[in-house]
Amino acid sequence: MEVYGYARVSSTDQNEDRQMIALRQKNIAERNIYIDKLSGKDFNRPSYKKLIRKLKKGDLLYILSIDRLGRNYEEIQNQWRVITKEIGVDVCVIDMPLLDTRQGKDLMGTFIADLVLQILSFVAQNERENIRKRQLQGIAAAKANGVRFGRPEKELPEDFALLMKQWEKKKITLPEVLKQCKMSESTFYRRLREYRIKAK
């Protein structure tokens, strides 16, 4: 029997230390700990795929929490089924002792573990949706208060009005205007529209 650990953080700027400390406390060999720094929205994760290929019947897999498998209700359920039923690996969710397939191998134990898994999977997905909703609400509120997102817009050249008039009178060509303004054609036309609206 081999013992494995899996850790995942949602992006490269998040720290996996908390998960790694919990896994190391289980005396898992470093070579058997797999880490992904990717979103949990799907299962296209390199380390996770390597881990699944390594697992064999009778092995034990530790994860810190159920949402490390992902935050999509159906996918968590599916991966749990693949690992425990199809491959035949025991899973221990460290922060939820009820989700330890080594315990209660009888019908009641399996029923309780499956029930807890379904509830936690639902809670994880629901939380993800709530976070997304709060982010959208925060962005909408910030925009309403005049906060601009993305790269700051470049200032118009001081002689933009003059360049615009010369271009309109065909004294200079569009490529010349774009070169002097250091803008693409689409940006120039957009800034021109904005400028005309403000000038009204």
List keywords for this structure.
single chain, 200 residues, alpha/beta, Rossmann fold, four-stranded parallel β-sheet, 51% helix, elongated
In the CATH hierarchy, what is the class of the largest domain?
Alpha Beta
Number of domains: 2
Using the alpha-carbon principal axes, give the shape.
elongated
Q: What are the low-pLDDT stretches, counting only 5+ consecutive residues below 50?
A: none
Strand content: 5-15%
The CATH superfamily of the largest domain turns out to be: Resolvase, N-terminal catalytic domain
Number of strands: 4
- Element-by-element helix/strand order: EHEHEHEHHHH
CATH topology category name of the largest domain: Rossmann fold
Strand pairing plus helix content: what structural class?
A: alpha/beta
What does this 3D model show about the protein?
This protein has two domains: 3-132, Resolvase, N-terminal catalytic domain (Rossmann fold); 160-199. Strand 3 (60-63), helix 3 and strand 4 (90-93) form a beta-alpha-beta unit. Strands 2-1-3-4 form a four-stranded parallel β-sheet, sandwiched between helices. Helix 3 (73-87) packs antiparallel against helix 4 (107-144). The chain is 51% helix and 10% strand. It has helices spanning 17-24, 46-54, 73-87, 107-144, 160-168, 174-181, 185-199, and strands at residues 3-9, 33-37, 60-63, 90-93. It has 200 residues and is of the alpha/beta class. It is elongated and about 85 Å long.
